[in-house]
Amino acid sequence: MLDINFIRNNLELVKKKVEAKGVPFAEERFSALDLHRRQILAENEELKSKKNRLAKETGFLKKSGASTREMELQSIELSKMIAAQEQELQSVDAEFHDFLLNIPNLFHDSVPAGRDASGNELVREWGKKPDFTFTPRPHWELGEVGRTLDFARAAKISGSRFTLYFGAMAKLERVLIQFMLDAHTTEHGYTEVLPPFLVNDASLIGTGNLPKFKDDLFKIEGYNLYLVPTAEVPLTNIHRDEILDESQLPIKYVAYTPCFRSEAGSHGKDIRGLVRQHQFNKVELLEFTSPAQSYAELEDLTADAESILRKLELPFRTLVLCSGDLSFSSAKTYDIEVWMPARAGYLEISSCSNFENFQARRARIKYKGRDGKKDFVHTLNGSGLAVGRTVAAIMENYQTADGRIRIPDALRHYFPGRDLL
User: Fold this and answer.
1) Going by C-beta distance under 8 Å and a sequence separation of 6 or more, which residues neighbour residue 255?
2) Parallel, antiparallel, or unpaired for β 243-245 and 251-260?
3) Is residue 47 a part of any domain in this protein?
4) CATH number of the domain that 202 lies in?
5) What is the pLDDT of residues 101-148, one digit of tens each?
6) Are residues 223 and 338 in the same domain?
7) Cα separation of 27 and 9, whole Å?
8) Which of 101, 132, 155 corresponds to the end of one domain?
């Protein structure tokens, strides 16, 4: 959520940056709601002051023995007016709050301008792409050949966009979760968390998933609970409504969770394989930092996510997203994309973002500085990595001519005595 005073004092800048994200900004409605709310507040305060003055005068009259009947009637009338105004204020506040919740975050000045993904800029590339003497197969075909992935039976059980893993491939998914968690906790300084996989609406509002992206969530019927779309949601809300000490920052968490998404609006996109599932596993990195630290921490967090691909020797590239391709809540994002031989192109495997204080305002997470002043923390997160997509990348990059999968060197100790899956 953006600061009301900042919006009020920078309407043109807010309009320009919001609309550069492809979201219309109704500045007239903001100004009208803001003015109406301030008018009601001012009138309400004046009525309360009038009632207080009347109460003092009534007390003096009572001490002198004079009649206070007329003043008591006036006080009753003022109370009715105050109650009516407070009810109106509650309605206006709710409307104004809803309006603010639907304004996206403003992008950082270092973000390149652009209308869509074509405006994203390459930051770096790493790794040597495999040179096959045969036509590489897509991972879903490899899974069917080896009988390690079964999409048809998963569809029988749950519907489309679900997968059954068998044997060594099921183990590979599990091993990768362990591998990522171990790397991030022992080498990069993250504290492992095992959070709930169900969250309430307040948690989703805090991260910006609600109300904007309600259609992409799975809600539990009859409960104020949703399946997590990402571990970002429970991790961010660990410190909701808290004031942290600056000496604690940065706080760095890593968590594995299954993730559940309806993939609303993705019809026809990546319908085969592990790329776009309703249920998938992910290891998530999340940080709480001071504003002064946050952009340096974004570089480190991105490097932490990239390190997993380096260890697995999977070629990748990192892009900085342009203004028009940024998510609703992000101020700046790096996308890490892994090379997928069958598509002869790259696939996003991690998005590493700085949300500045956008989520912290919504979740009311502050820190107390060394000078005693309180301010909102900055939050950052990134996939470290999306596990199913990592499995798909290993399958395609490490495939052999007969459809088997070589085991990356970094994972060999999990499969003693084996070179192939």
Assistant:
1) 192, 193, 194, 195, 231, 234, 235, 283, 284, 286
2) unpaired
3) yes
4) 3.30.930.10
5) 999 999 999 999 999 999 999 999 999 999 999 999 999 999 999 999
6) yes
7) 12
8) 101
CA distances 84 to 75, 78, 89, 90, 250, Å, are 14, 10, 9, 10, 46
Pairwise pLDDT comparison (201 vs 72), residue with the higher score: 201
Give the per-residue pLDDT at 264: 67
Tokens 């950082």 — which residue? 108
Per-residue pLDDT tens for 269-314?
667 899 999 999 999 999 999 999 999 999 999 999 999 999 999 9
**351 and 305 together in one domain:** yes
Q: Are residues 93 and 168 in the same domain?
A: no
With beta carbons less than 8 A apart as the criterion, state whether 256 and 231 touch.
yes
Number of domains in the chain: 2
Q: Is there a domain that residue 18 lies in?
A: no
The rounded distance, in Å, linking the Cα atoms of 402 and 127 is: 24
Domain that holds residue 197: 117-414
- Alpha-helical (H) ranges within 159-293 are 167-186, 201-207, 232-236
Backbone region of residue 364 per phi and psi (left: phi > 0; alpha: psi in -120 to 50; beta: other values): left
Identify the CA nearest to 304 among candidates 208, 196, 380, 197: 380
56 pLDDT band (50/70/90 cuts)?
A: confident
**Position of tokens 């026809």?**
268
54, HSE (Cβ side, Cα atoms, 13 Å): 18
Give yes or no for a contact between 204 and 233, defined as CB atoms under 8 angstroms apart.
Answer: yes
CB 326 within 8 A of CB 198: no
**Structure tokens belonging to residue 408:** 């990356």
Residues 191 and 91 reside in one and the same domain: no
Q: Do residues 21 and 104 touch, judged by C-beta distance below 8 A? A: yes
Residues 141 and 276 in one domain: yes
Contacts of 142 (CB under 8 A, 6+ apart): 149, 395, 396, 399, 403, 405
User: Where among 101, 127, 144 does a domain terminate?
Assistant: 101
Going by pLDDT thresholds of 50, 70 and 90, the confidence category of residue 230 is very high
What tokens were used for 118?
Answer: 């074509």
Domain annotation covers residue 83: yes
Predicted pLDDT of residue 265: 61
| Range in 151-155, 264-268, 292-296, 409-413 with the lowest mean pLDDT | 264-268
Predicted local distance difference test score (pLDDT) of residue 254: 98
